Each structure stands twice: as structure tokens, then as C-alpha cells.
Hints:
The structure holds 2 protein chains of 2 kinds. Helices cover about 45% and strands about 20% of the residues of chain A. Chain A is of the alpha/beta class. Chain B is mainly alpha-helical. Chain B has 11 helices and no strands.
Amino acid sequence: MIDRRRLNLLAVACLGAFAFATGARAADPVTIGAVEILTGPNNKYGVAIKNGFDLALGEVNKAGGVLGAPLAIAYEDSAGNKDQAINAVRALIGAKNAPLILGPTLSNEMFAAGPIANQRKIPIVGTSTTAVGITAIGPYVFRTSLPEADVVPVTLRTARDRLGVKKVAVMYANDDAFSKSGYDVMKAALEKLGIETLTTETFGTRDTDFSAQMTKVKSVNPDAIVVSALVEPAAGILLAKKALGIPASVRVIGGNGLNSPKIGEIAGDAADGVIVGSPWFIGKADPVNQKFVAAYREKYNSDPDQFAAQAYDTLFIVADAIKAAGAADPEKIKDALGKVKHTGVLGPFSFTPDRDPADTSGVVVIEMKDGKFGLLQ
Amino acid sequence: MTHALDNFLFTYQSLIYALGINSLLALSMYVVLAIGQLSLGQAAFMGLGAYASALLTAKFAIPFPLALIAAAAVPALLAFVIGAPTLRLSGVYLAIATIGVGEVLRIFYLNWDYAGGALGLNGIPEEAGFVWIFGVLAVALAGFAAIARSRIGRAMEAIRADEAAAGVMGVNLPVYKLAALVVSAAVAGVAGAFNAHVSSFIGPNEYGFDAAVTILSFALLGGIGSPFGPVLGALVLTALPEVLRPLHDYRLVINGLIIVCVVIFLPGGLLPWRLSRIGAPR
């Protein structure tokens, strides 16, 4: 009795293995790797990115895939942890032989995992890493996300020219790499544009009370408040600004951290008037973008954000590079990536010789109104 | 075959290093727990070792072995200085004081622009390898095992069991406590130096409260009867998330479940037994 059961099990296992093997042979896809935050507190970024990849992947494969085979993505979770990001990149390269890696999600993870891929001569393409110095890691490290250094000056120049902002107060979180690096960019841009900084206030990313800093800001009477922070503390700042009665005509100008619909959800009408620069905007009228937004809503029942949009474009760019390379060979793909020209939802795209995005014409300045972002009027 | 082995080593290289480094951290925790003290400053000592050695190699091009000595000496010195006042505290009060030390250091790194501030320290040479990490681990493990089986080990166990009684029996309490803290700080500092020199990047938030609790959990999961328990705990807790990687979304759930099961069914840890004393009748 036991023997027969065991035999049955064995038969089922063999069948399963056979089905798996033949299935794999029939498809034989070109598999690239992706390391994103799929679990843990920051997984909203990673999940949006994965959705963007998957949506584009479906369209690439519907149009015939790459190199006569379907394209596939092997996902690994980094949980937002740099050690896990390293392990994930190593696993994708060593065990899965991925000829290209997408991700990781955070700049910190890229600083840790990028050198691994670079050392092994595997191209790695960040879609959401905006910090200074990412592509300086090495010749195999690319990014499709516009660095803050390209977006923030556009935002500040627009604020100066359109709203007459001449003197500002600056606030930033000094205990988190993203906010600090955004502040460095803001400081340089403010100086270059000749906008006067009246005071610079700092806080911690996990702080919840900003009344001390806001009282100081109120006393210097700025035209606008420039903020570099992640969504949660930024929302706290907006609420404190309203509570202290700083008039709505004093705009809050934010970095990429404030470029999230969540800011309106948390801060409510206190978020009205927030200005940010964005590489992408859901309301962009061009047909490519409209098609993307409609397809995303249909598939995931929610609105795409900029991370999904960047991921969506990136997958087409990578697919183009693999096609142009003519083989799933890391060296050839790396060379082909540098020559790709693609027009997607973010606008025209190509890489600079330093492997950063070359074109900043897609940057739009948007403002929050009634809980929704719209183009700055 | 060599290609497959090469791929295997490449895939798991960071994990193998982490196994060794975390084992060292577990040992540093063991030294303090072995005399019945609860310190949550191990992560701070580790961070101090990491920053001290990384600054020396990355900014001054000092050879790695010398930086390693600094990585042991700087945290040991700090432990010596803070040891005198804090070791009057015991139990949860010492834990709170050591958390404070960790937070002070974290804020210090955040505001120290020379060491990268919030952006962290980049471009640390990858000097620490397999031989360094596991060589030091073997020496430390052998050393602690020898101590545990000696007169000193018995005295430490006596302090853990009943501090007052041990004092009355002639165990010099302040000396033992201070020595344990200093040695544990030095070991944690060396582990920090290895950590910095295998991953090329360190940041201030890596050595905070979370890391301190993780290190404590290594020792508690393994059991603190002998130095081998904490090392086993570190190996298990470090390897589990990677071993369970094929489970994808369920990986953290199963990981947590295994830890909960161990705590419920093996409250003394995985290896609760103590080593017998050299020459003692069995």
C-alpha cells in the first residue's frame, strides 16, 4: 500500500518535471533579472515598478518578443535592505545567468549592489535611483530615472519666473540619504538662480512635530518654502504650516519625495499649492501616455505613478537594446543600451555617454489642487 | 565544473561573509550575556569599528591589518570609558544606557560630513576576504571555548547565576564586568571592520537599534550556555532568509514562523548545554 502510494508520487513528480522541462523548452524565453522592494515598508515603490515592467512585458511579447523568443523577468525581493539587494543581484547573475539586471529600487541599494554587477560586467539599469553618483559606480551601471540634479533646477526656475519667488526658507531631513542628497541639489540650484536662502532648518525623517522649525520659518517671512523630504515628514510640514497660519500664497516647493498622490491623502487641503517637478505626469495629453494610463488602470484597477511610468519605458528601452545587440550577451547589450533612442510616456529618451538620461524636455512642473496634481497654471 | 563552482561562490559570496561576520557579532553578545548583563550597544561598537577602519583605509590608505587593530581598539576604548559609570547599572537599565550610546553615535555620524553624513561612506576597498573573516572567527571561538572551560568561565557563570553570591565568594565583580564589556566591544568592532570591507558602502542607519536587537536575537536563539550556541544562532538566522528565497512572497512569513517555533519549543536556545570544565569529573 505504502509502496504504491510512493510509486504514484514518483510518477506524478516525473510527469511534473517532464511537463516543466518541455514547457521551458517550447518557450525558451530570454530572461533578464529584476531586484525590487516587493515586501516591507517601502514596497509601494517596488510593486508600482513591477506593475510597470509587467505591463510593458506583455506588450513586448505581444509584438513578437526579442530575438525570436519571449522576454521574461525573474524578480527577486530586496525588502529595501542593501545586503539582500547584493544577495539578489548575485543570485540573478550567478544562478540564473541573467544578461541584464533591472533595479534595485533605492539609491542606497544601488550603491551596494551596483559594484557587484559592474565587477561581473553585467549591465544594471536603475529605474528609480535619483541620487548623485549612481552611474559613477562603473561603465555597466545605467539609469533611466532623471536625477534630482536635472529636475529640481527646472522646478525652482519655474517658481522664480512664474510666481516671482525671490527669497525662500529651506527645510530638509538630515538623517536620510535621499533627503540630504536632494538638499545638496537644491542648495546649488538656489545659488545658481540667485534666489536668497533666509534660513535652513533640519529635522529627522521619523519626526512628527515640526512646529519649532515652522515658527522659525514664519518669522523670516519667505516667499516660498523649499522642502527635501520623504512623503510622511513632508505631509507633517504642510500640516504644521497650515496650523501656524502661514498664508497659502507662501508655496511649498518640493523635491521628488513630495511627488506622490499620498501627500494629498495625508495632508488634505493643507497640501494645496504644493509645487514639484516630475519626469512624468498622469495628465500628459500625448497618445502614448493616454494609452499607458488606460492600459494600467484596466490591468491593476489603480492609477499609475511616476515609478510605474519609468519602469514601463525602461522595459521597452531594454528590449530595444537586446534586439539591437542580436544576442543575450551582456557586453553587446551594454553597448546597444548606449545607442537606444526611444520615445515613451516620459518623452524622448536616450543615454548620455555617462549613462544618465540625456533629455530633460519631459520634465513638467505640477501643483496640488483639491488633493490632485495638475499642471502648474 | 569549476565554472559551476565559480558561479556558486559568486552567488553566495556575500552570504558566506555575512555568516562569518554575524557569528563574530553573536560571540561579542555572548561575552556580555555570559556574565548576566544585557547590553544593546553591540551594534554601536560594530559601527564604531566599521567607521574607524573604513576611514583609515578609504581616506588614508592605511593597510587593512592596521585598520583592523584600530577597529578593535577604538570601540574597546569607548567601552572602557563608558564602562565605569554604566556598569553600576544592571539588567534593563544597562540595556537602556547602551541604547543611548548607540543613538548618540548614530546622530554623530549623521552630522559628521567628513565621514559622508547621511549619505554614508562610499568606496571602501574590499580587503576582507574568506580567510580573514573565518580565521578570526576560528581564533575567537577557540579562545572563548577555552575561557568558558577555565576558572574564568566558572566565575562568569557564577556571576550570571547570582551576582551577590559570586561577589561574596571572592569574584572581583567590577573587573569581570568591565573586562567583558571591553572584550565584547573589541570583537564587535572587528566584525564591523569586516562588514565595511566586504560591502564597499556603510551608512549611519545600519548600526542602529534594529541591528542591536538582531545581534541579541542571534545569541538568544542559539542559547548562551557555551560560545557555540550564539554562533549557531547567527548561522541559522543569517542563512534562513536566503535559504527560503525560492518561497518568494511567503519567505518572511515562514522565516518568522521558524523563529517562533524555536522560541516556544526550545526556550533555552538551540544549544542550551554548557561546556564542562577542563579536568573536572564528568
